[in-house]
Amino acid sequence: MLGADLAGYTEGYGRYFDEHARAKEPKTILDPAPRVVLDPHSVLLRRKQTAKDAAVVAEIYDHTI
Question: I need a labelling partner for 50 at 20 to 30 A (CA). Which of 3, 35, 58, 61 fits?
Answer without folding.
Answer: 3
